[in-house]
Amino acid sequence: MKRNSPVELPDGYVEFYKALETWQNEQQIKLQKNCAYSKVDNILPLLSEQKRPIIIIGNFIIDPHEYKMVFGDLLTFISKSRPELQEMIEAISKDIVQLDYDQLIKDLLNSKYETFATLAENYGTSTELLVFLFEHAVRPFLRIYAAPYQKELTEDTFQHWDFPSLCPVCGSKSHFSRLRPIDSRRFMFCDRCFIEWEAKYLQCIHCGNDTPGTIKYLSIENDDAYQIYTCEECKGYLKTYDEKQGGRSTDLFIANIETIYLDMLAQEKGYTDHDI
Ligand SMILES: [Zn+2]
Ligand SMILES: [Zn+2]
Asked: Which numbered ligand comes closest to the C-alpha of 211?
């Protein structure tokens, strides 16, 4: 189904992300043959006790050799789909054998970007773009690692984890949720590792406020399935896809990208996604 966005997105913007997601799915299928991660048993009590994401509890490690291959493949994909970046991609490609992937992956997972800033300067590009490249090459690994935990994380025994806006597997901040059609329960979605976990329907994911009447929702005319929940306490907002209104499930990764107009609407009205 084609959705009409009330704001004009740059040409090819959504298509680029769709192609990137397809590329990541393909990498994941290839990697699955060699990448076996051991799963931590009985993770729910450990999460409650340690209050740390599973990649830390389970000591998630990416093989630097496997990563180098995926990263090289990503550079090829990007230079085809974004020809304007070709020069920069070539500069990185020349370095590809000598980069310290062990360190770069560690820094990326710990959100430490100093090394990326230095490298970006060498390649004549921005730190953001370089981090974007390394980040998207990490995601196929993270998704393989995360998938076996999905069942436990959506069980009724794991309702309402202490940090509803943060992914219990990778620790990344989520800005998107869906409402399940059978009972309208809310599930947060991590666009990094593709895991879902439950959050309370009428409680702010940012500050925990649940005072009646202070959590409200907005939607755009003729587009009731895509909503923004706002909190009057911390002025936070959360984008949401209501599967009952939409009549079907949807690709939440793409839905998050397609609904940039909802972020703009929320921000115009003075709300924030509390991203750092
Ligand atoms: Zn995650
Ligand atoms: Zn709040």
From this structure: 2
